[in-house]
Amino acid sequence: MNGDQAMREMGKNLPVPEFERTPFTTPPTLRTATVAIVTSAALHCVDDERFSPADTDFRTIPAEARDLVMGHWSPNFDHTGFHMDIDVVFPIDRLVELQADGVIGRVAPRHFSFAGNQPDDVATIRLDSGPRAAAELKRDGVDVVILTPV
């Protein structure tokens, strides 16, 4: 079994968190919405603290940042696409284009990155760092989030 097959097999048996209620909100139209990116690509700015193994916190990425580091350390992860085009995992330039074309209202001033390798129960993200990042998004007036799982 190759590495990809092994990961898929392992993922099939991971527990899925269940929630007592599912919040729902109706966002404004995209033409007036503020849009942010939340990624699990372990991206961080060059001068920021690197992600460490089992890191459940997030890094804040200013909208103008382009000199980003991908902190994935797994030998199974191919960084080629990211090195060729950052928008593969962090589509910030596409968001800027959508704003210029009037498709979205504006690009959020900040975006957030988590490391994709999380404990199986994702409890810390679900109960601590996730809500903290969500509060920051709300503080920035974000209406819509694009999730880029990596």
Sheet with most strands? 5 strands, mixed
Looking at the structure, what is the overall shape?
globular
Tally of DSSP helical segments: 4
Strand % is 15-25%
Q: Order of helices and strands, N to C? A: HEEEEHHEEHE
Number of domains: 1
Mean pLDDT: 87
SSE topology:
Blueprint: H1 3-12, E1 34-39, E2 43-45, E3 58-62, E4 68-70, H2 80-84, H3 92-100, E5 106-107, E6 110-114, H4 123-139, E7 144-148
Parallel strand pairs: 1-5, 1-6, 1-7
Antiparallel strand pairs: 2-4, 3-6
Task: Give the structure's gist in a few sentences.
By secondary structure, the chain is of the alpha/beta class. The protein has helices spanning 3-12, 80-84, 92-100, 123-139, and strands at residues 34-39, 43-45, 58-62, 68-70, 106-107, 110-114, 144-148.
Task: Provide structural commentary.
By secondary structure, this protein is of the alpha/beta class. It has one domain. Helix content is 27%, strand content 19%. The protein has 4 helices and 7 strands, in the order αββββααββαβ. Strands 1, 3, 5, 6 and 7 form a 5-stranded mixed β-sheet that branches. The mean pLDDT is 87.
